[in-house]
């Protein structure tokens, strides 16, 4: 079953599981302000580099962040959000919410 433009159900579920870790949500929130180096993220979030690397690997593997190397110094890694993947995930959640609303309207039951 496919949800959203490019979001098969299994991919969606894995992305949501990855986002269930609070530190990863903090990373995404920080990256929402723009592209950042691993060092800047580590300092900003107060997270050790090896811990950040673990979380970044999970976020990259699930397509939630993108990575690029500095063009003149490969020691520097820059991270940014993958807007396309996040929009696809958002579309899935929006679809689920719309289905829930429609079911509540049909059954006459509403929740807050």
UniProtKB/TrEMBL annotation:
Q: What are the HTH hxlR-type domain coordinates in residue numbering?
A: 7-105
Q: List the InterPro entries.
A: ArsR-like_HTH (IPR011991), HTH_ArsR_DNA-bd_dom (IPR001845), HTH_HxlR (IPR002577), HTH_MetalResp_TranReg (IPR051081), WH-like_DNA-bd_sf (IPR036388), WH_DNA-bd_sf (IPR036390)
- Which Pfam families does the record cross-reference, listed alphabetically? HTH_20 (PF12840)
Q: Which PROSITE patterns match?
A: HTH_ARSR_2 (PS50987), HTH_HXLR (PS51118)
Q: Which residues form a coiled coil?
A: none
Q: Which UniProt keywords apply?
A: DNA-binding, Transcription, Transcription regulation
Identify the SMART domains for this entry: HTH_ARSR
Start and end of every HTH arsR-type domain? 4-101
Q: Name one GO molecular function term.
A: DNA-binding transcription factor activity
Write down the PANTHER family for this protein, in alphabetical order.
TRANSCRIPTIONAL REGULATOR, ARSR FAMILY, TRANSCRIPTIONAL REPRESSOR SDPR
Alphabetized NCBIfam families for the sequence: HTH_metalloreg (NF033788)
* Protein name listed in UniProt: Transcriptional regulator, MarR family
Lineage, broadest ranks:
Bacteria, Bacillati, Bacillota, Bacilli, Bacillales
């Amino acid at each position: 079953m496919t949800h959203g433009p490019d979001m098969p159900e299994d991919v969606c579920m894995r992305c949501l599981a990855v986002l269930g870790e609070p530190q990863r949500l903090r990373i995404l929130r920080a990256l929402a302000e723009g592209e950042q180096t691993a060092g800047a993220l580590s300092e900003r979030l107060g997270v050790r580099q090896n811990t950040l690397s673990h979380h970044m690997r999970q976020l990259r593997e699930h397509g939630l962040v993108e990575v690029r190397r500095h063009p003149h110094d490969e020691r520097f890694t820059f991270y940014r959000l993958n807007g396309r993947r996040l929009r696809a995930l958002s579309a899935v959640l929006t679809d689920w919410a719309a289905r829930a609303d429609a079911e509540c309207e049909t059954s006459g039951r509403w929740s807050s």
